[in-house]
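tool=predict chain=A
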Amino acid sequence: MHAIQLQAKGGPAIFVEDRSVPALPDDCLLVKTVAVSLNPHELLDIYPPWSFSDPGDVLGCDYAGIVEEVGAGVTRDFKKGDRVCGCTRPNPLQPDWGTFAEYIVVVADVQMHIPGAISMDDAAALGVTVLTTGAVLYNTLGLPMLPAIDESRRQILIYGGSTSMGRMVIQFAQLSNLEIITTCSPDNFDLVKELGADHIFDYNDPAAPAAIRTLTNDSLTLCVDCFSEQAGYDFCSQTLSKGATYVCLGPVQPDRADIDFRLCMGVLYFNAPFLFQGQVMEAPLERFSSAVKFAELAERLLAEGKIKMHPKEVRAGGLARVLDGVQELKDKKVRGKKLVYVL
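tool=predict ok
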Protein backbone atom coordinates (compact mmCIF):
# COMPACT_ATOMS: atom_id res chain seq x y z
CA MET A 1 0.00 0.00 0.00
CA HIS A 2 0.99 3.67 -0.30
CA ALA A 3 2.26 5.40 2.85
CA ILE A 4 4.42 8.19 4.21
CA GLN A 5 7.15 6.97 6.52
CA LEU A 6 10.36 8.24 8.05
CA GLN A 7 13.47 7.36 6.08
CA ALA A 8 16.12 8.31 8.63
CA LYS A 9 16.27 9.71 12.16
CA GLY A 10 15.82 13.45 11.85
CA GLY A 11 14.31 13.17 8.36
CA PRO A 12 13.48 13.09 5.60
CA ALA A 13 10.02 11.57 5.36
CA ILE A 14 9.37 9.66 2.14
CA PHE A 15 6.45 8.36 0.08
CA VAL A 16 6.49 4.58 -0.41
CA GLU A 17 4.28 2.34 -2.54
CA ASP A 18 4.97 -1.11 -1.09
CA ARG A 19 4.28 -1.00 2.63
CA SER A 20 2.30 -3.93 4.00
CA VAL A 21 -1.21 -3.46 5.36
CA PRO A 22 -0.82 -3.42 9.16
CA ALA A 23 -1.91 -6.29 11.36
CA LEU A 24 -4.95 -5.55 13.53
CA PRO A 25 -4.42 -5.47 17.32
CA ASP A 26 -7.39 -6.54 19.44
CA ASP A 27 -8.15 -3.01 20.70
CA CYS A 28 -7.96 -1.33 17.29
CA LEU A 29 -9.89 -0.66 14.11
CA LEU A 30 -8.50 -1.30 10.66
CA VAL A 31 -9.58 1.71 8.60
CA LYS A 32 -9.45 2.41 4.87
CA THR A 33 -8.30 6.02 4.82
CA VAL A 34 -10.38 8.52 2.85
CA ALA A 35 -8.74 11.80 3.88
CA VAL A 36 -5.94 13.02 6.16
CA SER A 37 -5.03 16.41 7.55
CA LEU A 38 -1.72 17.86 8.61
CA ASN A 39 -0.79 18.69 12.16
CA PRO A 40 2.19 20.52 13.70
CA HIS A 41 3.06 17.25 15.44
CA GLU A 42 4.41 16.04 12.10
CA LEU A 43 7.33 18.44 12.52
CA LEU A 44 8.13 17.08 15.99
CA ASP A 45 8.07 13.53 14.68
CA ILE A 46 10.35 14.18 11.71
CA TYR A 47 12.80 16.96 12.47
CA PRO A 48 15.41 17.83 15.11
CA PRO A 49 15.66 18.70 17.89
CA TRP A 50 12.94 16.22 18.90
CA SER A 51 12.69 13.72 16.01
CA PHE A 52 10.30 11.49 17.95
CA SER A 53 9.75 8.92 15.18
CA ASP A 54 12.18 6.20 14.15
CA PRO A 55 13.11 5.14 10.60
CA GLY A 56 10.31 3.10 9.08
CA ASP A 57 7.56 4.56 11.28
CA VAL A 58 4.36 5.60 9.51
CA LEU A 59 3.71 9.31 10.05
CA GLY A 60 0.52 11.32 10.44
CA CYS A 61 -2.00 11.93 13.22
CA ASP A 62 -5.40 12.95 11.77
CA TYR A 63 -7.71 11.02 9.45
CA ALA A 64 -11.22 10.14 8.32
CA GLY A 65 -12.11 6.80 6.78
CA ILE A 66 -14.22 3.65 6.61
CA VAL A 67 -13.95 0.76 9.08
CA GLU A 68 -12.69 -2.40 7.39
CA GLU A 69 -12.34 -4.62 10.45
CA VAL A 70 -12.96 -4.39 14.20
CA GLY A 71 -10.54 -5.85 16.73
CA ALA A 72 -11.81 -8.54 19.09
CA GLY A 73 -11.22 -6.41 22.19
CA VAL A 74 -13.01 -3.24 21.08
CA THR A 75 -15.68 -2.24 23.61
CA ARG A 76 -17.52 0.58 21.80
CA ASP A 77 -20.07 0.02 19.04
CA PHE A 78 -18.03 0.08 15.83
CA LYS A 79 -18.72 -2.14 12.83
CA LYS A 80 -17.43 -2.69 9.30
CA GLY A 81 -18.57 0.13 7.00
CA ASP A 82 -18.82 2.82 9.70
CA ARG A 83 -17.53 6.26 8.82
CA VAL A 84 -15.03 7.20 11.52
CA CYS A 85 -12.56 9.95 12.32
CA GLY A 86 -10.11 10.85 15.01
CA CYS A 87 -6.41 10.45 15.51
CA THR A 88 -3.52 8.31 16.49
CA ARG A 89 0.03 9.27 17.44
CA PRO A 90 3.15 7.94 15.67
CA ASN A 91 5.06 5.92 18.22
CA PRO A 92 8.42 4.16 17.78
CA LEU A 93 7.02 1.29 19.85
CA GLN A 94 4.13 0.99 17.38
CA PRO A 95 5.66 1.63 13.91
CA ASP A 96 2.29 1.27 12.13
CA TRP A 97 0.59 3.89 14.31
CA GLY A 98 0.37 6.68 11.75
CA THR A 99 -2.44 7.91 9.52
CA PHE A 100 -0.55 8.72 6.31
CA ALA A 101 -1.32 5.35 4.70
CA GLU A 102 -4.07 3.75 2.65
CA TYR A 103 -4.96 1.42 5.54
CA ILE A 104 -4.34 2.33 9.17
CA VAL A 105 -4.87 0.91 12.65
CA VAL A 106 -6.25 3.21 15.35
CA VAL A 107 -7.13 2.57 19.00
CA ALA A 108 -10.86 2.12 18.60
CA ASP A 109 -12.41 3.37 21.81
CA VAL A 110 -11.04 6.93 21.45
CA GLN A 111 -12.25 7.38 17.85
CA MET A 112 -15.56 8.94 16.74
CA HIS A 113 -18.37 8.01 14.39
CA ILE A 114 -18.84 10.72 11.77
CA PRO A 115 -22.38 12.17 11.80
CA GLY A 116 -24.15 12.08 8.45
CA ALA A 117 -24.15 15.87 8.12
CA ILE A 118 -20.33 16.12 8.35
CA SER A 119 -18.16 15.50 5.29
CA MET A 120 -15.07 13.32 5.30
CA ASP A 121 -12.99 16.42 4.56
CA ASP A 122 -14.28 18.25 7.64
CA ALA A 123 -14.00 15.15 9.81
CA ALA A 124 -10.36 14.57 8.81
CA ALA A 125 -9.46 18.02 10.13
CA LEU A 126 -10.77 17.32 13.66
CA GLY A 127 -8.37 14.62 14.83
CA VAL A 128 -5.80 15.62 17.42
CA THR A 129 -7.58 18.87 18.27
CA VAL A 130 -10.58 17.02 19.70
CA LEU A 131 -8.74 14.36 21.72
CA THR A 132 -6.23 16.88 23.07
CA THR A 133 -8.95 19.36 24.05
CA GLY A 134 -10.51 16.70 26.23
CA ALA A 135 -7.13 15.80 27.69
CA VAL A 136 -6.31 19.44 28.46
CA LEU A 137 -9.58 20.67 29.91
CA TYR A 138 -11.07 17.65 31.62
CA ASN A 139 -8.03 15.63 32.64
CA THR A 140 -4.96 17.87 32.93
CA LEU A 141 -6.86 20.88 34.31
CA GLY A 142 -9.44 18.69 36.00
CA LEU A 143 -12.49 20.71 34.98
CA PRO A 144 -15.87 18.98 35.28
CA MET A 145 -16.68 17.16 32.04
CA LEU A 146 -19.84 18.13 30.22
CA PRO A 147 -22.77 18.06 30.81
CA ALA A 148 -21.48 19.39 34.13
CA ILE A 149 -20.35 23.01 33.90
CA ASP A 150 -18.19 25.42 35.89
CA GLU A 151 -20.83 27.16 37.99
CA SER A 152 -18.43 29.93 39.07
CA ARG A 153 -17.58 30.82 35.44
CA ARG A 154 -13.86 31.01 36.09
CA GLN A 155 -11.62 32.94 33.74
CA ILE A 156 -9.24 31.05 31.47
CA LEU A 157 -6.54 32.32 29.14
CA ILE A 158 -6.33 30.36 25.88
CA TYR A 159 -3.15 31.53 24.19
CA GLY A 160 -3.21 31.03 20.42
CA GLY A 161 -6.97 31.07 20.03
CA SER A 162 -6.96 31.03 16.22
CA THR A 163 -4.77 27.92 15.96
CA SER A 164 -6.60 24.67 15.27
CA MET A 165 -6.09 23.64 18.91
CA GLY A 166 -7.16 27.04 20.16
CA ARG A 167 -10.35 27.01 18.10
CA MET A 168 -11.37 23.67 19.59
CA VAL A 169 -10.40 24.53 23.17
CA ILE A 170 -12.41 27.77 22.96
CA GLN A 171 -15.53 25.90 21.87
CA PHE A 172 -15.42 23.36 24.68
CA ALA A 173 -14.44 26.01 27.25
CA GLN A 174 -17.48 28.02 26.17
CA LEU A 175 -19.73 24.97 26.53
CA SER A 176 -18.19 24.43 29.98
CA ASN A 177 -19.26 27.95 31.04
CA LEU A 178 -15.79 29.48 31.39
CA GLU A 179 -15.06 33.16 30.78
CA ILE A 180 -12.64 33.01 27.88
CA ILE A 181 -9.67 35.30 27.36
CA THR A 182 -7.70 34.56 24.22
CA THR A 183 -4.95 35.89 21.99
CA CYS A 184 -4.55 35.96 18.22
CA SER A 185 -3.75 38.40 15.44
CA PRO A 186 -6.33 41.13 14.76
CA ASP A 187 -7.26 39.44 11.47
CA ASN A 188 -8.74 36.57 13.49
CA PHE A 189 -10.57 38.54 16.19
CA ASP A 190 -13.98 37.94 14.57
CA LEU A 191 -13.27 34.23 14.15
CA VAL A 192 -12.50 33.56 17.82
CA LYS A 193 -15.36 35.79 18.96
CA GLU A 194 -17.79 33.67 16.92
CA LEU A 195 -16.40 30.55 18.61
CA GLY A 196 -17.10 31.93 22.08
CA ALA A 197 -14.20 34.13 23.20
CA ASP A 198 -15.22 36.88 25.64
CA HIS A 199 -12.02 38.97 25.62
CA ILE A 200 -9.51 39.05 22.77
CA PHE A 201 -5.98 40.46 22.75
CA ASP A 202 -3.31 40.84 20.09
CA TYR A 203 -0.44 38.59 21.12
CA ASN A 204 1.98 41.00 19.41
CA ASP A 205 0.84 43.94 21.56
CA PRO A 206 3.45 44.48 24.30
CA ALA A 207 0.75 46.03 26.49
CA ALA A 208 -1.51 42.96 26.28
CA PRO A 209 -0.18 41.03 29.33
CA ALA A 210 -0.68 44.05 31.59
CA ALA A 211 -4.16 44.59 30.13
CA ILE A 212 -5.05 40.98 30.93
CA ARG A 213 -3.80 41.40 34.49
CA THR A 214 -6.02 44.45 34.83
CA LEU A 215 -9.00 42.61 33.37
CA THR A 216 -8.54 39.70 35.79
CA ASN A 217 -7.54 41.81 38.84
CA ASP A 218 -4.29 39.83 38.95
CA SER A 219 -6.27 36.67 39.79
CA LEU A 220 -5.99 34.59 36.60
CA THR A 221 -5.42 30.95 37.58
CA LEU A 222 -6.15 28.90 34.44
CA CYS A 223 -4.16 28.95 31.21
CA VAL A 224 -3.89 26.72 28.14
CA ASP A 225 -1.03 27.56 25.79
CA CYS A 226 -2.06 26.23 22.38
CA PHE A 227 1.04 27.67 20.72
CA SER A 228 3.41 25.99 23.18
CA GLU A 229 6.65 27.65 22.20
CA GLN A 230 8.81 29.74 24.48
CA ALA A 231 7.28 33.02 23.31
CA GLY A 232 3.85 31.74 24.30
CA TYR A 233 5.01 30.77 27.77
CA ASP A 234 6.75 34.13 28.23
CA PHE A 235 3.50 35.95 27.39
CA CYS A 236 1.31 33.73 29.56
CA SER A 237 3.61 33.86 32.58
CA GLN A 238 3.21 37.64 32.66
CA THR A 239 -0.56 37.32 33.04
CA LEU A 240 -0.86 34.57 35.65
CA SER A 241 -1.29 34.96 39.39
CA LYS A 242 0.66 33.02 42.00
CA GLY A 243 -0.46 29.39 42.11
CA ALA A 244 -2.00 29.46 38.65
CA THR A 245 -2.06 26.33 36.48
CA TYR A 246 -0.36 26.64 33.09
CA VAL A 247 -0.87 23.83 30.56
CA CYS A 248 1.23 23.51 27.42
CA LEU A 249 1.30 20.96 24.61
CA GLY A 250 4.99 21.04 23.82
CA PRO A 251 8.39 21.60 25.41
CA VAL A 252 9.01 25.05 26.93
CA GLN A 253 11.28 26.23 29.74
CA PRO A 254 9.28 27.59 32.70
CA ASP A 255 10.99 30.12 34.95
CA ARG A 256 8.34 30.71 37.63
CA ALA A 257 8.36 28.33 40.58
CA ASP A 258 5.04 29.72 41.81
CA ILE A 259 3.11 28.40 38.76
CA ASP A 260 1.80 24.85 38.49
CA PHE A 261 3.38 23.85 35.16
CA ARG A 262 1.71 20.92 33.38
CA LEU A 263 2.70 19.34 30.06
CA CYS A 264 -0.19 17.55 28.37
CA MET A 265 1.07 14.75 26.11
CA GLY A 266 -1.75 13.42 23.98
CA VAL A 267 0.23 10.29 23.14
CA LEU A 268 -0.32 9.06 26.71
CA TYR A 269 -4.10 8.78 26.15
CA PHE A 270 -3.97 5.72 23.83
CA ASN A 271 -3.46 3.01 26.48
CA ALA A 272 0.01 2.12 25.21
CA PRO A 273 3.56 3.07 26.25
CA PHE A 274 5.44 5.69 24.23
CA LEU A 275 9.16 5.93 23.54
CA PHE A 276 10.26 9.48 24.35
CA GLN A 277 13.91 10.48 23.95
CA GLY A 278 15.05 6.91 24.61
CA GLN A 279 12.82 6.40 27.65
CA VAL A 280 9.62 4.37 27.77
CA MET A 281 6.74 6.38 29.18
CA GLU A 282 3.81 4.35 30.48
CA ALA A 283 0.27 5.48 29.66
CA PRO A 284 -1.88 5.63 32.82
CA LEU A 285 -5.18 3.77 32.47
CA GLU A 286 -7.11 6.68 33.97
CA ARG A 287 -6.00 8.91 31.08
CA PHE A 288 -7.27 6.39 28.56
CA SER A 289 -10.56 6.06 30.44
CA SER A 290 -10.94 9.84 30.39
CA ALA A 291 -10.22 9.91 26.65
CA VAL A 292 -12.86 7.24 25.95
CA LYS A 293 -15.46 9.16 27.92
CA PHE A 294 -14.56 12.37 26.10
CA ALA A 295 -14.66 10.71 22.65
CA GLU A 296 -18.23 9.65 23.35
CA LEU A 297 -19.10 13.18 24.48
CA ALA A 298 -17.46 14.82 21.46
CA GLU A 299 -19.19 12.40 19.09
CA ARG A 300 -22.57 13.37 20.58
CA LEU A 301 -21.84 17.10 20.39
CA LEU A 302 -20.76 16.75 16.76
CA ALA A 303 -24.01 14.97 15.95
CA GLU A 304 -25.95 17.76 17.69
CA GLY A 305 -24.16 20.40 15.61
CA LYS A 306 -22.61 22.08 18.65
CA ILE A 307 -19.01 21.95 17.39
CA LYS A 308 -17.93 24.15 14.50
CA MET A 309 -15.57 22.70 11.89
CA HIS A 310 -12.07 24.03 11.26
CA PRO A 311 -11.33 26.28 8.29
CA LYS A 312 -9.57 24.07 5.79
CA GLU A 313 -7.98 23.84 2.37
CA VAL A 314 -8.75 20.57 0.59
CA ARG A 315 -6.08 19.35 -1.81
CA ALA A 316 -6.04 16.60 -4.38
CA GLY A 317 -3.10 14.35 -5.16
CA GLY A 318 -3.45 11.91 -2.29
CA LEU A 319 -0.60 10.79 -0.08
CA ALA A 320 1.97 11.59 -2.76
CA ARG A 321 1.35 15.32 -2.17
CA VAL A 322 1.28 15.25 1.63
CA LEU A 323 5.01 15.96 1.89
CA ASP A 324 4.46 19.26 0.07
CA GLY A 325 2.15 20.31 2.89
CA VAL A 326 4.61 19.14 5.53
CA GLN A 327 7.23 21.42 3.98
CA GLU A 328 4.77 24.32 4.06
CA LEU A 329 4.18 23.65 7.76
CA LYS A 330 7.92 23.65 8.35
CA ASP A 331 8.26 26.94 6.44
CA LYS A 332 5.43 28.46 8.55
CA LYS A 333 3.30 29.10 5.47
CA VAL A 334 0.13 27.51 6.89
CA ARG A 335 -1.93 29.84 9.06
CA GLY A 336 -5.54 29.81 10.19
CA LYS A 337 -6.53 26.63 8.35
CA LYS A 338 -6.00 22.89 8.18
CA LEU A 339 -4.54 21.29 5.07
CA VAL A 340 -6.62 18.24 4.09
CA TYR A 341 -5.58 15.69 1.47
CA VAL A 342 -8.09 13.36 -0.16
CA LEU A 343 -6.78 9.91 -1.02
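The chain has a mean pLDDT of 96. The first strand starts at residue 3 and ends at 6.
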